[in-house]
Structures are given as structure tokens and as C-alpha cells.
Write a structure and sequence with these properties.
Helix content: 40-55%
Strand order of the largest sheet: 2-3-4-1-5
Shape: elongated
CATH architecture of the largest domain: 3-Layer(aba) Sandwich
CATH topology of the largest domain: Rossmann fold
CATH superfamily of the largest domain: P-loop containing nucleotide triphosphate hydrolases
Radius of gyration: 25 Å
Number of helices: 22
Number of domains: 4
Structural class: alpha/beta
Length: 477
């Protein structure tokens, strides 16, 4: 298994404690939650069950389908045939009876995967699970229950931060995050897929560090061929992934999709007021719920632009695949079999790469700080757009404000070779630190920092950058 060393260590520690455990594992769909639990506890499961995806079911009959599926899992685990449950209270009672019947004092491990999917409308699933845990399971010192979910908002509200019957019942929680570039490189190497770091970064721009997506790669093909196979061809595995992501995770996917589609139109994102006006989703509490769900699902992040207050908080899309699918939606749906191979140098793709590389950098702030030698320095991350004195606007996509009185103003440039500062760009780059210095305390030093692929060409203008960070730095552990 690539990475996840700390998570595996923690799960094994909890398993070997002589006490009851209720462990929550959550994170984005496809990030590897099920794989983590399966590989850690292979052969040790007493009972395991996975909810049915709402994306694959009609609205009518969802509860009956979920209950029948749960009953079948009990039969597969060894339970004698009984009357099928009519509700979740009955279903969990059957689970109690089954576990009691096989309890010999040894550790029992129950794995309930995609718990939010089981909570269909008006099913009273949460109340039934509360009854199972509070009335029976929590009194069994030899029982460990692991629950997983891709709907992070549901997991937080109903389990981890529950104010109801499951308040303070979670004994440990693990949030699984996407792989870093370092871990993606390990995966490709161990699977005999030969990509340069330049290509691995481009794969990250599209698929992020999501293990499920990377497992679709075939080592006999180039990066461009793999992208066409996975996303653009007629039978592409991920042709409908954007739709499936939202249907599988969100209760009201159309509203979340509308918000994400609007946010994706500007890299710097928008304020709440702008989202309400531009997305077609009504403001107030309804908008708040949708935004909270998107943030919890790791599709959207918030930040306060440099020099602004909390009321100017911006929301922006950070999920690479969502951004890619929105950018090339028509090409994906038209089944352009060789689109990526044929249009790799077309201007729309070049423009997308520039924007996508910025997202890669945002996902690797620890590596950037390490390259600057300030891993231990408290740092806030933001962006800045100034239009007051510049009719064309001045935008800095990444600012690192450090507690050691240094402000790194980062230029992010994706290039096929070394980045060259030309005379036309020199004045602009030289003037930006001066604009920033007008906005910060005199004790703050502003340093121009270049983050690029292969470094900086030394010429009469290259001295405008104090620090240069390359792909090799972003691939650090």
C-alpha cells in the first residue's frame, strides 16, 4: 500500500486495545477508504457490509433495497435465515443476535462501509444505529466497529460532531486525504508505469492524488493516451464520473453542481453574495448548507483574500477532476477518441495547464515551505487581486504570509523547459512587490518567489526572483 502508514498504525493500535471502539474513516469518494480498511484487517472481519449507492437506485424502494442488502450480508456472514427486517431497528437487532451467537470472547470486527448511503429519506437509520451502539455495542469490550463514508458532511453532522444520541461516541476518526506527488510517483514506479515528473504533475492536474483514478492507468500507453482512454474515448471509465460524484455524495446534487460550475469560472473564486447572484442557488441558509457540504466533501475551499476581512471570504473549487471535467465538458461528452493526443499544445489546453498548475501548488504548501526552509514557521495562505490603481488588475494567486515577518509573493509558471523572464514582464514583476509593500507593515519583507517546472533561465531580468522552487521540490515527501 502506498502511503497511509500512520493510518494503518492507528487502526492496528485501536484493534489491539481491550475496549470497545467506534472508529470513523471519511474522505472524498475514491480516495481509498475501503482499500485501507480491507488491507489493514484482511481476514479479520466478523461482519462487513457496504451500503448501496443512491446513484444506482430509483427514489422509490430505496429503504427496502438497503434492508434486503443488509440482510443478505448477514446471511453471507453466517447468520441463520430469519424473517427479513422491515426497518433499521429490526436490522440492527438481527446484527446483535448474530454477533452474540458467535461471541467467544475474541476480538470482533464489524465494518459498515458507506454508512451515509444507508440513511435513505425517512428511514430512521441514524436513530436505529444509535440504539444499536448505545444499548448493546458500547458494552462489548471485545467489539470494534469501523464506519466509513464519502459524504463528509453527513459523517461530521451525524457521527463525529453529533449532538444527539451519538454525542462523544466516536472513539477515533481518520480523514483520508489524496496522495501527494511523492506518493503518486511511488505508485507509478511500483506499478511499472514509466512517467517523467513532468507527466506525473500533468496527471495530478487532471486526477489529483486519487488512488482509484491512478489505478486506471496502463503502463503500455503514454500519459496522453491514458487520458484519452480514461476520459475521452467512447467507453471511457470516467466519462460520467463528474455526474456520479455528485449523485453519490450529495442529497441535492443539482444545486451543488450549479455552485461548482459557477465557481470554476474564476480561479480566485467568489464571495457568498456573488455565488448567490451567479449560480442560481438562493442565498441564506439554503446556500450555506450547500457550501458547507461542498467544503466537507473537499470539492471547495474558502480563503480570505489578502488585506480583506472575513466578510470578503472567497469560495473556490479545488478538486482537480471537477475543474478538468467542467473545462473540457463538451469534448468529454462528444467522445473525441484522441482529443488529448491531438490537442495537447492547443491554446485552450495550454491555458488550462497554467491554471491547473496553480492548484497543484496549493495542494503542496508543506513542500513549498520545506523548499523555502520554513517548515516550522506558522504561515497563512491567501491570494490578492488589486484593481484600484491598475485598470487591467494585478492578481497574485498565492501569498505566503509567514510569522517570521516575510511575505512570499509566488508566481506559478508551468513550462516545458526553464522559465525565462523577458523585458516586457520584468517591469510588471518588479512593480508587484512595491504594490504589496503599501499594504503591509514596514517590518514585513516581500520576496518574489517563482514556482515552476525546471527552473529559471539566468539573464539580465532573472534577479527579480529571490527564490526559485521546481518540480523536484514539489515531489519531496
Amino acid at each position: 500500500m502506498i502511503g497511509r502508514e500512520e493510518e494503518i498504525k492507528e487502526l492496528k493500535r485501536l484493534y489491539h486495545r481491550n475496549r470497545t471502539e467506534l472508529v470513523a474513516v471519511y474522505g472524498r469518494l475514491r480516495v481509498g477508504k475501503t482499500y485501507l480498511v480491507d488491507e489493514t484487517f484482511q481476514g479479520k472481519f466478523t461482519f462487513r457490509h457496504t451500503g448501496l449507492s443512491p446513484a444506482d437506485m430509483e427514489t422509490q424502494g430505496q429503504l427496502r433495497s438497503q434492508l434486503d442488502h443488509f440482510y443478505n450480508s448477514l446471511i453471507l456472514a453466517g447468520m441463520e435465515k430469519k424473517k427479513k427486517p422491515d426497518n433499521w431497528l429490526d436490522a440492527f437487532f438481527l446484527l446483535e443476535l448474530f454477533l452474540q451467537s458467535i461471541d467467544d470472547g475474541s476480538r470482533m470486527l464489524v465494518f459498515l462501509d458507506e454508512l451515509p448511503w444507508m440513511d435513505t429519506p425517512r428511514s430512521s437509520f441514524v436513530q436505529a444505529f444509535e440504539g444499536f451502539w448505545n444499548n448493546w455495542a458500547c458494552h462489548r469490550d471485545n467489539l470494534m466497529v469501523i464506519v466509513c463514508g464519502s459524504d463528509e458532511s453527513w459523517m461530521m453532522d451525524n457521527l463525529i460532531n453529533s449532538h444527539g444520541g451519538l454525542y462523544d461516541r466516536i472513539t477515533w476518526s481518520i480523514k483520508l486525504v489524496p496522495w501527494t506527488l511523492h506518493e503518486c510517483e511511488r505508485f507509478f514506479r511500483e506499478n511499472k508505469i514509466r512517467f517523467s515528473r513532468y507527466d506525473i504533475v500533468q496527471s495530478y492536474m487532471i486526477f489529483g492524488g486519487i488512488p482509484y483514478y491512478l489505478r486506471l492507468f496502463d503502463g503500455q500507453y503514454s500519459l496522453a493516451q491514458n487520458v484519452d482512454r480514461i476520459l475521452f474515448s467512447r467507453e471511457a471509465k470516467l466519462k460520467k464520473e463528474f455526474e456520479r460524484l455528485f449523485r453519490s455524495v450529495f442529497v441535492s446534487p443539482d444545486a451543488e453542481k450549479a455552485i461548482v460550475a459557477f465557481l470554476a469560472t474564476r480561479g480566485a473564486g467568489y464571495t457568498r453574495k456573488e455565488i448567490a447572484e451567479g449560480s442560481g442557488v438562493s442565498g441564506g441558509g439554503t446556500l450555506s448548507r450547500h457550501l458547507d457540504a461542498l467544503i466537507a466533501g473537499n470539492f471547495v475551499e474558502t480563503y480570505v483574500p489578502f488585506g480583506m476581512g472575513k466578510r470578503e471570504e472567497h469560495y473556490k473549487v479545488v478538486d482537480p477532476l471537477c475543474l478538468f471535467c467542467l473545462h473540457f465538458a463538451s469534448e468529454i461528452q462528444s467522445s473525441a477518441e484522441s482529443f488529448w493526443q491531438e490537442h495537447g499544445m492547443a491554446q485552450p489546453v495550454v491555458t488550462w495547464r497554467e491554471q491547473a498548475f496553480e492548484q497543484v501548488c496549493f495542494h503542496h504548501i508543506p513542500q513549498i515551505k520545506k523548499a523555502l526552509g520554513v517548515s516550522g514557521v506558522i504561515t497563512s495562505v491567501s491570494a490578492w487581486t488589486m484593481r484600484e490603481d491598475d485598470p487591467d488588475g494585478t492578481q497574485i494567486s498565492l501569498l505566503l504570509k509567514r510569522n517570521d515577518n516575510v511575505l512570499n509573493m509566488c508566481e506559478m509558471k508551468f513550462c516545458g523547459g526553464r522559465f525565462t523572464v523577458h523585458q516586457d514582464d520584468y517591469r510588471t514583476l518588479l512593480g508587484r512587490p512595491e504594490l504589496l509593500r503599501q499594504k503591509v507593515s514596514p517590518r514585513i519583507v516581500v520576496r518574489s518567489t517563482l514556482i515552476t517546472t525546471f527552473g529559471l533561465t539566468r539573464n539580465a531580468y532573472s534577479g527579480v526572483f529571490t527564490n526559485v522552487i521546481t518540480l523536484n521540490d514539489l515531489f519531496e515527501k
